[in-house]
Design goal:
5-stranded antiparallel beta sheet; 0% helix; single chain; rod-shaped
């Protein structure tokens, strides 16, 4: 008996610069990303359990607001990760 792995996923990203804003605020923008994952891991002797892939969350979200002023760019990033298995 061996281990069995399977999974599917979808990832999407969007970036928008708010060029309609006046002056220096024209360089203000945001990048957002979402990853949706569905994985399965089978351990010998535990085939009847629905186990996710080790250290693989179902959802990962990130957001990065930024300000681009020509030669100067500033950004702050935030990432949220759903629960995931760290050990069996």
């Amino acid at each position: 008996m061996g281990r069995s792995l399977s999974g599917t996923g979808l990832e999407a990203q969007v970036q928008e610069t708010f060029t309609f804003l006046p002056g220096a605020l024209r360089g203000l923008g945001v990048t957002g990303n979402v990853a949706l994952l569905d994985s399965e891991f089978e351990i010998p002797g535990r085939e009847d359990e629905d186990l996710p892939l080790f250290q693989q969350p179902d959802v990962i979200l990130s957001a990065t607001p930024f300000l681009n002023l020509g030669d100067l760019t500033a950004q702050v990033s935030y990432q949220w990760t759903d629960e995931y298995v760290v050990g069996f």
